[in-house]
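Build the 3D complex.
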Amino acid sequence: MKTIIRLAVCIAIMIQSQAYGQSGSMVKIEGGEFIPLYGTETAVKINDFYMDVYPVTNAEFLEFVKKNPRWKRSEVKRLFADESYLKDWINDEAFPSDRSPNAPVTNVSWYAAKNYCECEGKRLATVDEWEYVGMANEKQPDAREEENYNKYILSWYETPKTYKNEIGSTFRNYWGVYDMHGLVWEWTSDFNSVMIGGESRKDSTGDNNLFCGAAAVGATDLMNYAAFMRYAFRGSMKAKYSSKNLGFRCVEDVEKKAL
Amino acid sequence: MKKYLLFMLSPFLFLSCDQPGEEKGQIEDSEKVVATHTVDFNKELPDLSVYHLPSTWTTQDNKDIQLEDLRGNVLVMVMIYTSCKAACPRLIADMRNIEKQVPEEYLGKTKFIMVSIDPETDTPQMLNSFAKENLMEDDHWMFLRGTPEDTREFAAVLAVSYKKISPIDFSHSNIISVFNEEGVLVHQQEGLGVDNTETVEAIKAEVSN
Amino acid sequence: MKNFKTSKKRFVYLFFLAALVAGVLTSCEKAVAAKENPELMKVYGESEAEMTAPPMVPRPVGKRAATKLIVNMEVVEKEMEMADGVTYNYWTFDGSVPGSFIRTRVGDEIEFHFKNHPDSKLPHNIDLHAVTGPGGGAESSYVAPGQQATFTFKTMNPGLYVYHCATAPVGMHIANGMYGLILVEPEGGLPPVDREYYVMQGDFYTEGEFGERGLQPFDMNKAVDEDADYVVFNGKVGGLTGENALHAKVGETVRLYVGNGGPNLVSSFHVIGEIFDKVYVEGGSTINENVQTTLIPAGGAAIVEFKVDVPGELVLVDHSIFRAFNKGALGILEVEGAENEKVFGGKISEGVYNPGTSVTGIVEEVEDSAPVAEMSMADKMERGKQVYTQSCLACHQATGAGIPNAFPPLANSDYLNADVHRSIEVVKFGLSGEIEVNGNVYNSAMPPQNISDEDVAAVLTYVYNNWGNNKTEVTQEMVKKVK
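Done.
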């Protein structure tokens, strides 16, 4: 019932959603099992789902803001977005001239990203879903052990201002999804499932009074720095924060798509 | 047919989506849950009020409430799950310790709320028996469960992290949060068995405000 | 009974003594509490900390009382020069490597405002070794890009301390330059000196080898293997040479605040041509005197002091010496002023030493008669520059100016221009013993450069066609002939 309401809330926009941007293009991700770097020592089951081929762009988000004034920079409630929300925009309805309409939108809060997806009849991916798709390179669904794959990601961490690049400027992965690595970070629905605090050295012992249970990082996988830093980034975020290097894309459940 | 129905509903709901803070319809209906209060409900909610979250929650008495129904109370909130064996009993103890230090005359305006991070297991019945077992049956104790999605969102507001790490267990941060009568977060204490003087002071200050 | 009297006497005596001791002790304890327990020290007023980029340090605290000190620091991820033609994406505290020098005194209440620039890709934090408390502030300062956090602490122990980023993966954050020094001066300040400088060593791991041009990404595997490509002072090759050299005048006392950020290597810090009069061992309160080389652990520091008595160039090195000459750990302190022959007389005589028999074996070389293709002049110049950067630059410097008294200049060099065959010989087989270049006498050793004839030709052509030399083109044929 709840989801139906949420869908209904945004249905007015949904009708027009095909009219702008590339939001229509999704690809099917075949589910499976994998052991993510963080959070569990057993395999996680991923169901089939659809994922946006590209992150949401500046142009697309501008349309969304126009239709949902409560997400305008001047009107957004501070509970849902802090001062850095759309900070670089010239005003409520214009992104800066040095940003391409086709570059990924960044400086959006988790609430805004989540609501955007809801208004498309979609949702944000879970961390596990995102990581499942993110472990693919051009050829393989799981390239986590490939040296070049990891090097590619690590080198992105050190490349400045990639948020100015257009969507589709990085590689198309095994699933047909672009820009999982090399463009921007992406919000996930349960980004706040990461128990990495500021004290990374203590976290890895699992003996942490701030957290119940031991979601410590498996020492065996510590070499997988490329993935680890995504978790560290998620762990540093709060839902109302936004960041210049952080965008998002949406996913959709298979049953819902069939509806 | 279903779709048509939604279309017809949408104008109203769209409005509510637009301005969740303005909607007051529910307040009168759920008077029982709300303690006596002195808040002016016609006043617009502060930007940072948690009552901007338009979600429905179920109590241990199987009543559905909106968060905003709690407006006018000082809220002391913690996120737990009832089958938790590690930190949660200690968090519950921490909550009880705080409650003991709040003067009795303040309790009418204070709600101590446990929000479940495991709504699948924590049915209203489960919450109810948990409340009984823990002798938390007075009016100022409240247990809530919501949809997994709303729970995740609520945790985001509290900056609480949690993750299911096995079929029965979650790891989660141990944070107790205090909200003022308008639903604005005013204080948080982090960790287990930490000094709660400031938390108690924050509650007293808000209630007597 | 008989002994009663004596024992009573003794008892009284003991009692008296005990009372005396106790009295002394309590009064002593009181004094200690008032003077030395920093926790109880009152703070007076509030001020913003002066922050300086290396090699400078803020003004000494002097006699000032403990105060509330506001420290503002910003994390910036940015591309900077690692060596000539080599750049690197550094992660920095305040935009420099090492980060800003923080100067406090014991008992100060520090209010630390820690900011992460919105352009940053990653969350960062700071662990200050001067902090008594969990993680050295790491947890309290953990900030996402575009966020800031404020935390406070009291400086309890005087000393020189390292600070660094402790966000996972910690090693990578440190390897990218996230470290610096915080000094906690004792009450009344450190004794005044004439000059103070801030020097910090660090090791870097790049995908390309030392000197390989272009933007070099971080190499995690090398870092794990502790196989450093660069070991440098103040963040880059030449961080303390050329225009970045330190200065002092004869007769002055110089104090260096030396830290080692690591992430991996321990520094054998030495200043060629000086003896440390004082070393505050490991940055703490123990003072050692008359020290030649002091060990600075990764994540540690030392304060060294010396009076400079004679003019010349003092060379700061990590005396794990290949790091100095092949990986960049070399700095210069130029001392100006009058000669003092009482302290250093210089050379007073020289002559041939010939014990008569040669101990060197004669190695017969196999002639390589395969014809070789000669590179074009343009190719030679380009290749030559690369070879120069890799093999020559550390000593002879990017401008060919060399380092006075240590490495002869290649620019406008009479020695070089006089005899090209001799130059080839030097590059191929090395050179030791005294030579005179442009009127100055040098006496050091250059090892044979283990490079191909082609590269010898290229690098010499590059040298001869630069910096005012006589534009000789050296061919592989010429190189081959020199044996």
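The two ends of chain C are 105 Å apart (CA to CA).
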